[in-house]
Structure formats: C-alpha cells, structure tokens
Amino acid sequence: MKGARRTLVALVGNPNSGKSSLFNQLTGLNQKIGNFPGVTVDKKTGVCTLTNGERIDVLDLPGTYSVYPKSKDETVVTDILLNTSDPLFPDVVVVVVDTSNIKRNLLLFTQIKDLGIPVILALNMVDMADRIGKGYDLELLEKELETPVVNINARNGVGIDRLKKVLEQGAPKQGKAFFDVTELASDQIKEHLGANNAQTPYKALHSLVNDGSIMDTNAIQAKDTTVRYGKINKLVGKAEQKKTAIGLKLYTDKIDKILTHKIWGYLIFTAILFIIFQAIFAWASWPMDLIDNVFSEFSFWLSKTLPAGILTDLLAKGLVPGVGGVLIFIPQIAILFAFIAILEETGYMARVVFLMDKIMRRFGLNGKSVVPLISGVACAIPAIMATRNIENWKERMITIFVTPLMSCSARLPVYTILIALVIPNERVWGVFHIQGLVLLGLYLLGFLAALFSAYVMKKIMKAGERSFLIMELPTYKMPRWRNVGLTIVEKVKTFSFEAGKIIVAVSIVLWVLASYGPGDAIKNAEQNVQKSLEGKKYTQEQFNNQLASYKLENSYAAKLGKSIEPVIKPLGFNWKVGIALITSFAAREVFVGTMATIYSIQSAEEDVTTLKNRMRSEVDPETGQPYFTLALGLSLMVFYVFAMQCMSTLAITYRETKGWKWPVLQLVYMSGLAYVLALVTYNIFV
Questions:
Q1: Which of 127, 335, 462, 521 fits 554 for a cystine, CB–CB 3.0-4.6 Å?
Q2: CA torsion, points 269, 272, 278, 283, in degrees to nearest 10?
Q3: CATH of segment(s) 8-168
Q4: Closest CA to 177 of 93, 250, 117
Q5: Whole-angstrom distance, CA of residue 2 vs CA of residue 81
Q6: Which residue intervals of the chain bear CATH 3.40.50.300?
Q7: Residue 329: its pLDDT value, please?
Q8: What number of other Cβ atoms are within 10 A of residue 508's Cβ?
Q9: Which regions of the chain are under pLDDT 50?
C-alpha cells in the first residue's frame, strides 16, 4: 500500500495476449477486446474484489512488445513504469503472457522484472497451448525466475481465483535480476547508480538511453534484446513439457490458406460484407417499422390526451418524433455490431487486418492504419485514438486525416432513411436486395475515398519512410455469445444515449425555432391561410395541414434554412434539408431526428403516418412531383459519405494532433469534397 490509496495492480502484456479479457474477469467491466494491436489505446481502470474481501484498483495498459517504446500507446506504458512519482505507478505488475507463444512474450516480462517492480507472471491461453502440444513446469519457472507464476484462461475465468490469492499476499519479492545489464555500458551505469542508488541497473540504463548519455542506443537495445532471448530460449527449453497436440494449429493453417489467399481471401471478405449489408435491411425492416409506428402512435396519443398548449406541442411534435427518428435504427445498429463482434470473437477480423494491409501499402498507409480504418466503421473517435500505435508521424497524421471518411454507425440512420425513400425494395436475381447493395456501395465509396485521400496526402507530405504491421494471427475460436451480446447491448446503449442526449437538446431548440417566427406571420397564420383558401373546397384536415406548413415556412427555422438555400440548391436541397444539414453538425444522426421534428410540426395533429411516409409525400412546389427523387436521395447520400459533420471527431483530432491545423484541414477538405461530389451526383441523375 502507498499512503491511503488502495493497492494498484497494472496489467501489462503483448498485444493480443488477453490483458483486456483478464481485466474484464477481475473488474466485471466490459472493456473492448479484439484480435489485433491498437484496441486498448489508453489506460483503463477498474476495481477488483479479492477472495478475502479486499478491494484493489486494476489498471489495464496498452499492449506493448518491449519497454523501449516505438509508438504513442507504448509510450503510455513506459512513462508509467519508469516514473515512481506517477500517481498510476503500480504496486504490482501482472505480466500477461500468451502461453502458446511464450518465448516472444517473456521478453517484456524480463524487462519489467529488471526494472525492480514487483511482478507476477500470468500464463494465459493455457488451453490453446495444450491444443498445440505445449505445457510448462510452473514450479521450475517460479524457481528460475524467482517470481510467482499462475496458469489462467482469461477467456472463461479459469485460474482467476488462484491469481487473486497471489495478489492477496501483497507485492512478491523478485529475487535477482534476469540479466545483468551493467556489461552493456558498465562505466556509465555504475556512475549513474552512484548518484541514484535507489535505481536498478536496468532502470539506470533506460535513464542513460533516454537522456542521450549513451550515443549508440540502437546497438544497446539490440544487444539487450538478443541476450535476453538467448536466456529465454534456454529457460523455456528446460521448462517445456511435451503434450499430445490435437492439430489445432494445423486446422488453423488450413483455414488460413483459404481466408488469407490473395484471391479467395478478398472474394470471401466481399461476400461476408454482402451478407452483413443484406441482413441490415432484410432482418431489421420489421422491428424498424414497429418502432416507427409506436413513436408515431405515441406522438398522436400525446397530442390528443394532454391539454393543448406549448408543452404538449413540444412533447408531441418535438421530442418524441426527434428521439423516435433515431431509435428506429437500433435494430440495424444491433445487427451491424453483432456481425462485427462475431468476426472479432472468431479471430477472422485479424485476417481482415492482414488482408487489407497489402492494399494499404500501395496507397502509402501504414499497415497499422488498418485497425483505425476498420474501427472507423463503428466510430471515428476511438478509431483516431487507435492511431497511437503508428510509429511514423507522417503516416499517423495521414491516417487521422482520412479515418473520418470511413462510414461510421452515425451515418447509418441517414443512409437507411434515404435508401428506403428512393431505392426500390426489390431483389436482384431473386437473392440480393437492391437497398442492401446500395448501402454496401456507400460504405465502399467512403473506403475508396479514404485510400485516394491518403495517396494524395502521401504525395503532398512526401511520406517516403515505410513501417510495417507486426501482428500474430490468433487461432480460430467459437464466439463467446455472452461477449457478442454485451457488445450489442453496449453499442446500442452508447448509440441511443449519446445520440439521444444530442437529439433531445436539438429537438427542443428546433421546435422553438420552428414554432415561432419574426413579425406577426405566425400569430395571424389562421387568417392568412383562410384568405389563401377562399373560394376553394377543402376539408378540416387539409386546412390543418396548410396551416402547419404556413407556420413552419414563416418560422425562425425556415429563415435559417432559406438563408443557406441558395448555396445548397444546386445540390437539389431545399431549406428543410438545409436545416437538417446545419443541425447535423452536432452529430450526423441528428439529420433524421431533425427531419422527424420538421415533418411532425408540418403535419396536422390527426396525421399519425410514419416519418418515411411523410417524407415520401413531400411535393416539390416547382414541379408538382415528389420532392425526394432518386437524384436528390443519391446527392444527399453522397454528401453524407464525405461531409465532416461531427464536432466530436474534430475535437478528438485536435486532442491527438495538439493543434487546430489538422481539424480545420479535415473540415475544409471533407466539406468541399462532399459539396462537389454531391453536385456532380445530382446533375448526373437529375
């Protein structure tokens, strides 16, 4: 214990060693788990209750291969472990090791041990090691390393209680150093230790390397690594216990010959994408219609049940339609993330990273750029944070710049409402939904735009230095359905609450802007509408609709939309779409909530039709034809593929690049690209 704080235990290990799974088992939190580097891009903390009732803090650090950092996320680890004054300096470090690849993983363990930090060795994935015929003598390892060693399987919780028992005993004594590094730079280390007698020789070596006292740092690091691996190989050879393999590695290799094949691999991945996007429309249509009808009926019920007044109008025509316009897409979000979770759980997503690495290099991107770009399909914010494991600064900046072009889940509601409006719900060859194919095309368009933009940025920045993706392909596993379910719940909850908070705020502001206006136009709306209908036959419902439209057209919201209409009219957009474009700068999915609020305010109280039906019945006053045509729908879709309409993404870019230069460039470039390509699209299909 340090002072009054609880014992702090840090989890450290190579990428894909199972740290985050162990973190989840110890703390009960649902930390993101993936089969590739860059998933844990920042430190995560939680609380663990030991078997004796003691509570300890657990810190999950980013994956790293060595204490010599080469990227931003690896620097997070070394900054904490080398600085005893850091508030997060741990009392104990649990080094999590992939037992099926123990030699490579033990390098990091020996380095941390030699820093003088109390350490426990957790041999993870012992079941996988058994399947490939590998086992190890724990007593011998403990004796040789003079460190507690525990077998665990973080995936299913095996051995967690044993690890907790070891943690209950407090910081373990570490014994002698694994490698006497004084032979690497004897005089400098001894001199440094004379002034810093509390340090270990290995920590002294790090200090000398970092402050430039040792000139040939690369040679020192190389020799350190080489000597350590030599000793590790001898130790593992002594401790290894041969077992009967069940052919898992052979089984995995046979599958990989197909799934990572230079032709079949890409065809299979494309087929999987087809299935995902077909499912998003085919499986989600019924629950989406149900949610849409429930909110429409609820809005109608509120307007009829509650006493007439401002509050009733705000609820029935502002908040309920706005929130319902976003929650309708929960089934599609759930299906998308269910597929992504299954692909990650089985180990296939790591193969996707491997496949895409070959394409990325041709466009000047780092192999590690694959992880942020794939993550960008979910959300650009964690995706941009995942660029921290890219060592090359120029390649990292290029990746940050192009990642928002990947179509995130916030764009999905925009795409699907527009596709449902202008793309026929028909099948090609009796199998493929045209709507699903269009959705797939929009995602591929964003991906191709990211590649093209990266290539242009590479030429501008003259990024000639090449770095490489180093990753271990995990063996194939059956998905843990509990993890899949938790992922779906977490993503749906995040989407609903994050989008919901913004929608509520925007809906209130938008309802006020759409319900009030300058002058006496809205105050005298009934008289003005009656005058316009003099001499014409009309029903009460037609009068109510005309009145609602008149009020909206003379509101502050209409004034705002009409102020930008001259700029967006060449794209086919009217002032109503203009309002949605402005509000969706808060978040892209606000577009649908805004349209729901606008069309709810424009409708008569008796109208309980759904948002799609209201938008479908919109008429262009100039042509008398339906307003939402194929040309307009495609123009809007293309605009949202490219437009930077997410303040949170700009904020995270500012944080990661430490300045406004890159966020401003992103905003200008993506907005300009969106405008030009939407203009071209509209004129092609009009």
A1: 521
A2: -150
A3: 3.40.50.300
A4: 117
A5: 16
A6: 8-168
A7: 74
A8: 15
A9: 1-3, 33-40, 604-606, 608
